[in-house]
Design a protein that fits this description.
CATH class of one domain: Mainly Beta
Strand content: 15-25%
CATH architecture of one domain: Beta Barrel
Number of strands: 12
Oligomer: single chain
Strand order of the largest sheet: 1-2-5-4-3-12
Distance between the termini: 141 Å
Structural class: alpha+beta
Radius of gyration: 45 Å
CATH superfamily of one domain: Rod shape-determining protein MreC, domain 1
Helix content: 40-55%
Largest sheet: 6 strands, antiparallel, barrel
Order of helices and strands: HHHEEEEEEEEEEEEH
Length: 335
């Protein structure tokens, strides 16, 4: 080994030799890589390089699978650690965002239900050609012995006492009092409620009346009429108050007592005021919505038949009682 003038070995020359060898090796690797890349690009997966690459991937796949299996729990622990170390500000922000999204979902659901109810009212108005004004129910009855609701329309909107009120599924009642901006509606189930009605299928006419218990009954339907459970009851148009053909309810019970002139019919209303917010107040009737002359004649004939049968029954009962030596009974009209 050559020595420097001071007698020490000359190491820098050896270091320079090693650096030159390393540079040449790097250049050789780059050239070989470029050559292999060029050959692989031209030959694709069908050449020897593609086959060698496939064999290498096949040979190392178990190692990769084992590595993925081992690292999965570690990644899970890393996620848990990250969640546990999240600062309070981040958690509070996520909670606020979640609350906002939940409130938005509720709001959208409410809007969707409101739109559906309004669409139902529009369909009812259009299908029956109703002259009406829309209103909202704002409160229920203030006492326990009447069935009424308050709506947010009054005389300033053209609403007056006597006007029918209907929801999308059917009639709910009639306006009995109007202020400037609010009105009181008596519901069908109120004991003072009475609406001219008829069985939609048979056209048999009667009166739909409420009761103290809230049960609806269809009266004045002769015992000879054909009425079945499930029959639909609609307004008859008699009296010129309610438009003809508006749905009222469905027959749920039909009974005929021996010797009775009329059937005992129980009706379930289609509309319950507590289930609705938006309603229509019918402000006027068209000619086609009123009872026809034929309807009026049929109703008169039905009343006369009922009266005749009632009088005949009373005379027979009286004669029987006289024959038995008992006092003559009072006549019953069934009205």
């Amino acid at each position: 080994m050559p020595l420097s003038p001071s007698g020490r070995p000359q190491r820098p020359a050896l270091a320079n030799s090693r650096q030159a060898s390393g540079g040449r090796a790097l250049i050789a690797c780059v050239v070989i890589s470029l050559a292999l890349f060029t050959v692989s690009s031209r030959m694709g997966d069908e050449g020897p390089l593609g086959a060698a690459r496939g064999a290498f991937q096949t040979a190392t796949s178990p190692i990769r699978y084992i590595g993925a299996t081992v690292s999965a729990p570690l990644r899970g622990l890393g996620n848990v650690f990250t969640n546990l170390t999240a600062d309070q500000a981040t958690l509070s922000e996520l909670q606020a965002e979640n609350d906002e999204l939940r409130a938005r979902v509720v709001e959208l659901e409410e809007d969707a239900q409101s739109a559906e109810r309004l669409q139902g009212l529009l369909d009812l108005r259009d299908s029956n050609n109703l002259q009406s004004t829309a209103a909202r129910i704002i409160s229920g009855a203030s006492d326990s012995w009447s069935s009424t609701v308050t709506i947010d329309k009054g005389t300033s909107s053209g609403v007056s006492a006597g006007m029918p009120v209907t929801a999308s599924s059917g009639v709910i009642g009639q306006v009995i009092d109007s202020g400037l901006n609010t009105s009181t509606v008596r519901l069908l189930t109120d004991e003072n409620s009475s609406v001219s009605a008829m069985i939609q299928s048979s056209r048999a006419q009667g009166m739909l009346t409420g009761s103290v218990t809230g049960q609806l009954t269809l009266t004045l339907i002769g015992s000879d009429e054909s009425v079945e459970v499930g029959d639909v009851v609609v307004t008859s148009g008699l009296g010129g108050v309610f438009p003809k053909g508006l749905p009222l309810g469905e027959v749920t019970s039909v009974e005929s007592s021996p010797g009775a002139l009329y059937l005992d019919i129980v009706v379930e209303p289609f509309s319950h005021a507590e289930s609705y917010e938006e309603i229509l107040v019918v402000t006027s009737l068209t000619e086609e919505q009123q009872a026809t002359a034929e309807d009026i004649a049929a109703a008169d004939a039905q009343d006369q038949l009922g009266s005749s049968e009632s009088e005949a029954g009373g005379e027979t009962d009286g004669q029987d009682e006289q024959d038995d030596g008992a006092p003559e009974g009072d006549e019953t009209t069934g009205e």
